Amino acid sequence: MNTEHASIRVLYIEDEPHNRSLFEATFQNEFSVITAPSAAKGLEILKEDTIHVLITDQRMPEMTGIEFLSSIVETFPDPVRILLTGYTELSSVVEAVNQGHIFYFATKPWDADNLKTIILKAYEHYQKQHEDKEVIEKLTKINEGLEFHLRQKLIS
């Protein structure tokens, strides 16, 4: 395994076994790959694991990729979302961006080099989000401390 990116945890949700196998075979030496055959199984994995990049197919039997991504926005805001589809309807793209908070909309069949680049960019975005959260938390604590000292000075 390429140790440089081995810590990047990618969840790939795809109902077609051949596509899941192909994804895993292509990227298992690059990333820590977890696959799920359904949105329900993907949800179980999200509850149990830290996922950095989430890739889901749009057309699945139980629910669409957009429906799945929309349903997890509040509960699992951290994974960066990529939607894969063999169909490029503009309405699907708009809906995915607006409801599922996707980072990237990619088409099937996917090119391995291109998808690897997208995953790496998604992980960079994930890291940036976490760095921003840490900065906000630190600034909030500093602000609370300053407010406390200001109140103390006003009281005395």
Keywords:
alpha/beta, 5 strands, 156 residues, elongated, Rossmann fold
Shape: elongated
Kindly report the CATH topology: Rossmann fold
Low-confidence blocks of residues = none
Characterize the main sheet. Answer: 5 strands, parallel
State the domain count: 1
* Class of secondary structure makeup: alpha/beta
Report helical residue fraction. 40-55%
Note the beta-strand portion: 15-25%
Per CATH, the architecture is 3-Layer(aba) Sandwich
Oligomer: single chain
Through-space gap between termini: 63 Å
Give the ordered list of helices and strands.
Answer: EHEHEHEHEH
Radius of gyration: 19 Å
How many strands in all? 5
At the first level of CATH, what is the class?
A: Alpha Beta
Calculate the mean pLDDT score and round it: 88
The CATH superfamily appears as Response regulator
Helices and strands, with pairings:
Blueprint: E1 9-13, H1 17-27, E2 32-36, H2 39-48, E3 53-57, H3 65-72, E4 80-85, H4 90-100, E5 104-107, H5 112-155
Helix pairs in contact: 3-4
What would you note in describing this structure?
The chain is α/β, with parallel strands linked by helices and 156 residues long. The chain is built from five helices and five strands, in the order βαβαβαβαβα. The chain has one domain (9-125): 3-Layer(aba) Sandwich (Rossmann fold). Helix 3 runs parallel beside helix 4 (90-100). The N and C termini lie far apart (63 Å). The mean pLDDT is 88. Keywords: Phosphoprotein. This is Response regulator. The modification 4-aspartylphosphate is found at residue 57.
